[in-house]
Design goal:
With 422 residues, this protein is of the alpha/beta class. It has two domains: 255 residues, Spore Coat Polysaccharide Biosynthesis Protein SpsA, Chain A, CATH 3.90.550.10; 136 residues, Rossmann fold (3-Layer(aba) Sandwich). It is built from 16 helices and 17 strands. Helix 5 runs antiparallel to helix 16.
Length: 422
């Protein structure tokens, strides 16, 4: 049987850790694999520790003549991969014995637009002599779009790639300030996600070792690359958002929120306060008539009730008179109750109230919306769920009003300016 997956292990000075990673490949229940080891110009004497494995015809060793870093080492391996799938294994980590079998079987069920398959992760901590002192299982998750993935601020493992997808985007990028030496995982994932889908298996498939010599613990350049990689991705995705970063425990930099970048043509940004009623009316009217977008953002981080109060603007609601509204919110019942006085005054019918969070799947949301007839969806929930709501409602050619603080949209879709019958 022909091999269907190539395991790639790039390494640099890992003679004490590398053997365990290699052994985990040899101990797989699925044995139709190939293994490429990429020595990034190591200076330690690692060969005696792995020599027995090099005699296996499935194993190939590439030796870089100079230290190139992770991305270039992975690209060297990609050039000679001849299997449909490629999976990366860090030299200080290892697989469960069933990892490859589960991944290959799942990959064969997926369509070609699925480029990455991942699972759950077990993190283990070791002491100075390599003894595991504790472990923790970390559950992965699915992602509906690129912005949800970016906002999650999380890596995915194992990274089981469709080889053709990697080649289509040109392999691992090396155009960052450090030429792909750091954060190579996110650099490639940010390139793939606009064109392909990621698939998550709810099973533990990868074991990550935490020790004093982790690359992430040694190199502060990694933290600088976080900001560069996020900004580069947002730029390539159309400059729709600007990232706001924060520093979390341990000194890690992460994306705190995405701020809409609203361009002059067809999009407007308006901060809502009592003094802006006239300007608000003008922009909403223009947005509806021209079928463009309007971003409503409150003045500060506030909860759903306060946001509802900010939106109690009679000139805005008059434009929506006579329409049917569905509420998609983490707090659907209480959230909708805030709008009852407004709905009665302007003859706005509340046709549905559905709880939606980042745990809501696309199929569940579609089922909810198919139960009701509506013109406008009001959304106020988790960022990831907001994006899902926008995707589904836009496909239904409906109007979306997102009033969660700092989020985009919008009044979008076909809507004629309503008139009130006297």
């Amino acid at each position: 049987m022909m091999a269907k997956v190539t395991v790639v292990i790039p390494f640099f000075n890992r003679k004490n850790l590398l053997p365990k990673a290699i052994r985990s490949v040899f101990r797989q229940t699925y044995q139709d694999w190939k293994l490429i080891l990429v020595d990034d110009c190591s200076t330690d004497d690692y060969l005696p520790a792995i020599e027995q494995h090099l005699n296996d015809p499935r194993v190939r060793l590439i030796r870089n003549t100079k230290n190139l870093g992770q991305s270039k080492s992975l690209n060297n391996a990609l050039e000679i991969v001849d299997t449909p799938f490629l999976v990366q294994l860090d030299s200080d980590d290892w697989y469960y014995s069933s990892t490859l079998e589960i991944l290959v079987k799942e990959a064969e069920k997926q369509p070609n637009d699925v480029a990455v398959i991942c699972g759950n992760l077990k993190v283990v901590w070791e002491d100075s002599v390599g003894k595991i002192i504790r472990g923790k299982l970390k559950r992965g998750r699915p992602f509906t779009d690129r912005y949800e993935f970016l906002m999650a601020n999380t890596n995915i493992v194992p990274r089981f790639y469709r080889t053709s997808a990697l080649r289509k985007i040109g392999g691992w990028p090396t155009n960052d300030p450090y030429e792909g030496r750091y954060r190579e995982d996110m650099l490639i994932l940010y390139r793939l996600i606009p064109h392909f889908r990621f698939h998550w298996i709810n099973k533990p498939l990868y074991i990550q070792r935490v020790h004093g010599n982790n690359l992430t613990n040694r190199n502060r350049q990694l933290q600088k690359t976080v900001e560069w990689s996020v900004n580069d991705a947002l730029s390539r995705w159309g400059n729709e958002y600007k990232a706001n970063f924060c520093i979390v425990r341990g000194g890690w930099k992460k994306v705190r929120k995405l701020i809409p970048i609203l361009h002059k043509k067809g999009r407007y940004l308006l901060k809502i306060n009592p003094l802006s009623a006239d300007e608000m009316r003008r922009l909403v009217r223009s947005s509806i008539q021209n079928k463009t977008s309007l971003c409503l953002t409150s003045l500060a981080n506030v909860n759903a009730r306060e946001e509802a109060i900010l939106l109690k603007n009679s000139r805005f609601w008059k434009l929506l008179e006579g329409k049917k509204i569905v509420f998609l919110s983490k707090w659907s019942e209480g959230f909708a109750n805030q709008f009852k006085p407004i709905s009665k005054r302007w003859n706005i019918r509340i046709s549905g109230k559905f709880p939606v969070s980042d745990k809501t799947s696309a199929s569940e949301l579609v089922t909810m919306l198919n139960k009701v007839k509506y013109d406008i969806a009001f959304v106020s929930t988790d960022f990831n769920a907001v994006n899902l709501c926008k995707i589904i409602t836009n496909k239904h050619n409906k109007i979306v009003v997102d009033i969660k603080d700092g989020m985009q949209l919008v009044v979008k879709g076909k809507l004629s300016l309503p008139t009130r019958k006297r």
